[in-house]
Design brief:
By secondary structure, the protein is an all-beta fold. It contains no helices and 10 strands.
């Protein structure tokens, strides 16, 4: 713990290769206390399988409240990739409104979308729970 922030020094995969194409809740109750004000996640990798023309286009949407888009990550591969591939898409700090977050894929080309999320840290008010 550093001040009011708890930074994990372990690999906390809260979702491995998630492929939901409709809004799906990722519960962080085992990792983040209810009093936490924010938490930080990393979309460690995102990808899928290209279509027959070698194109894969997928958007992962992340929401802290159902139906309210917080951010989106896009992977667009049009270089003739014919196999599965994965790329990192960044890290995000979300308000802790539900002790978790929602995500879903929107695939425009290709199939078998996947994303892996890690929990990096969280902050608590006044320097402690």
């Amino acid at each position: 713990m550093e001040g009011n922030e708890v930074i994990y020094d372990t690999y906390n995969a809260v979702l491995l290769n998630g492929g939901a194409t409709s809004e799906t809740f990722i519960d962080l109750a085992n990792y983040v206390p209810k009093v936490a004000t924010v938490f930080q996640i990393s979309a460690l990798s995102m990808g899928g399988t290209a279509d027959v023309t070698g194109v894969f286009v997928d958007t992962v949407t992340i929401e802290h409240t159902s139906g309210k888009i917080f951010t989106q990550g896009l992977v667009s591969l049009t270089t003739g990739v014919s196999a599965s591939c994965q790329f990192p898409i960044g890290s995000y700090t979300l308000p802790n409104t539900k002790n978790g977050f929602y995500y879903y894929h929107t695939v425009n080309n290709g199939s078998a979308p996947v994303v892996t999320f890690l929990l990096l840290s969280y902050k608590v008010p006044n320097g402690g729970p």
